[in-house]
Amino acid sequence: MKCPYCGSARTRVIDTTRGEGSIRRRRVCKQCQRRFSTLERAILASPLVVKRDGHREEFDRDKLLSGLRIACARRPVSADDLERLVDRIETHIRQLGRAEVSSRVIGDRMIEELKTLDPVSYIRYAIVYLGLEDLDAVRGEIDRLLAERNQ
Ligand SMILES: [Zn+2]
Question: Which helix (H) or strand (E) holds 138?
Fold first, then answer.
């Protein structure tokens, strides 16, 4: 690993942190003594996403993230929480090992994750995703959620 500051190939690992599906290494350059980090992660292709209308598109994590940000606006959910949530979804669909995956699989997973992360964001997302069209439907979903939590 070359030092990004001076280009020297003489670097030393001073710390290793294992994350979910990745390894971060803190390094020091023996030449200029500066420190930097490297992130190592497996590169796996994500399957194509088959939309409801049948057309296919690349898995787009930015699109998922922007949908989540809207659902979680002004809620106690950090940017890190959202990144990790999308990481888990991406890992999940890759582990299915298929060339294509239905957008439903992603949506269902997303909704399950949100339910645990933040109930209010979950309801906001559910209104769009589950197509809850009136107050009764929203109320039904909230009742169901409350019943699940009280179990
Ligand atoms: Zn250096």
Answer: helix 135-149
- Interval between CA 117 and ligand 1 midpoint (Å): 42
Whole-model pTM over 0.85: no
Q: How many angstroms is it from 34 CA to the middle of ligand 1?
A: 6
Q: Residue 52 in 3-state DSSP?
A: coil
Low-confidence ranges of the chain (pLDDT < 70): 43-44
Element of type H or E holding 73: none
Three-class SS state of 140: helix
CA 142 to each of CA 79, 126, 135: distance values in angstroms, whole numbers, following the listed order: 25, 10, 10
Per-residue pLDDT tens digits for 64-86:
999 899 999 999 999 889 999 99
**What is the rounded distance in angstroms from the CA atom of residue 131 to the CA atom of residue 135?**
12
Which three-class secondary structure state does DSSP give residue 25?
strand
What SS3 class is residue 64?
A: helix
- For residue 110, the tally of other CB atoms under 10 A from its CB is 21
